[in-house]
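Repro:
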Amino acid sequence: MNRVAVVGSDGSGKSYVARELGRLLDAPVTHLDAVYYDDEWNPLPPEKFEAAQRELVAAPRWVIDGNYNSSLHVRLEACDAVVMMDVPTRVALWGILSRQLRHGAGQHTSGVYNRIHWGVITYVATYRRRMRPKALAKIHELASGKQLVFLASRAATRRWLEQVAGSEDIAVQASEQSSQGAGGQP
């Protein structure tokens, strides 16, 4: 995994997974909310937002989290792996509430962007019925043949991240062993 798109509902754990993957894969992490909104929550015009994403995905390694279905094609065409945070609605609703309680409102350096209002609650409450089918259709159309990971619970997410950490440890060990060369010298 070198280029990972993390998608799913608000409150599903996208930012957490992106930060952990970035750490494990030693890849830069971008939270699309930070690209889309300025400090006063003004959105970037759609054409500029898409252009900014095209610049981001041109890099050889990245983890990008965010839904933004209108520009999802940019990330799906460029990624080699998609992580779909596919948690139940109640888990996502609890996610936005608990995040607000833990971090407060506003934008934070950890990639947390809290702005709970009725529109956000409605979006999360209807995500599985309205947006999930659209995201899945784009994933199946544009990410065919790429690694697809569906995470339906916090426990599954923790287990998967542990597996990724384990496979990265194995890859690092193999790389270190091969760099020791045939002479057996470290």
